[in-house]
Amino acid sequence: MARIRSSDIAAARDAWASDGHAPATIVRRLAVLSRVFNLARREWGMESLANPVESVSKPRVANARNRRVTQDEIEALCAATGSVELGVFIRLAVETAMRRGELCNLRWEHVDLRACTAHLPHTKNGAARTVPLSTRAISALRGLPRRIDGRVFGLKPDSVSQAFDRACQRAGLSGLHFHDLRHEATSRLADLLQAHELAKVTGHKDMRMVLRYYHPHASDLAKKLG
């Protein structure tokens, strides 16, 4: 590690870019390398070790997606899946803004159909949260057969993405990724909730991410000041 220089890191960065990796992917890889060097310095007894990643410029990440998903597209996808379970999975994603992994890990013991909530004890950012369930989300869940193992879905993250892509092809939809359902759900919820409420539902810790979806009309804000 002591022999690695910033020029080595820069060469790796350029090689990843030449291989066609997205800027966000390269930035994440550099962040992992940076954490390794910092960990070695703090905990592995290598106090004099420099972090060469800190001297390397990062590619600009400008690959935010603004793809909106219509209700007609949702219906077409659910019909194209040929799977009741995946159809409910898709409907839950667009109704709750849950992440793919959060839905895969959802258990019936954490779902309260009477209170219209789903508790997520383990999330991507490490903070548990409870998600409100809309009438359509409740209806979709009620139509799902109960599994013996207590899980709501028997799907794995990778299989969800693959099946979703196949459904898109059958439905004739292009430029659509599963994560776009979370974006769509957040955009819809932003019309109903205030920014701090929206963050509680989606699990965003960075309010800047939440404000991408929150666009209240000035006239509506004026009525609140009223």
Automatic annotation (TrEMBL):
Residue ranges of domain Core-binding (CB) in the record: 1-41
Record keywords, A-Z: DNA integration, DNA recombination, DNA-binding
Name of the protein in question: Tyr recombinase domain-containing protein
A Pfam family the protein falls into: Phage_integrase
Gene3D superfamilies the record matches: 1.10.150.130, Intergrase catalytic core
Keyword Cell membrane attached: no
Domain Tyr recombinase: residue ranges: 64-226
UniProt organism field: Dyella thiooxydans
PROSITE patterns: CB, TYR_RECOMBINASE
SUPFAM superfamilies, per database record: DNA breaking-rejoining enzymes
Gene Ontology molecular function: DNA binding
One Gene Ontology biological process: DNA recombination
Lineage, highest ranks first: Bacteria, Pseudomonadati, Pseudomonadota, Gammaproteobacteria, Lysobacterales
Entry keyword annotation includes Isomerase: no
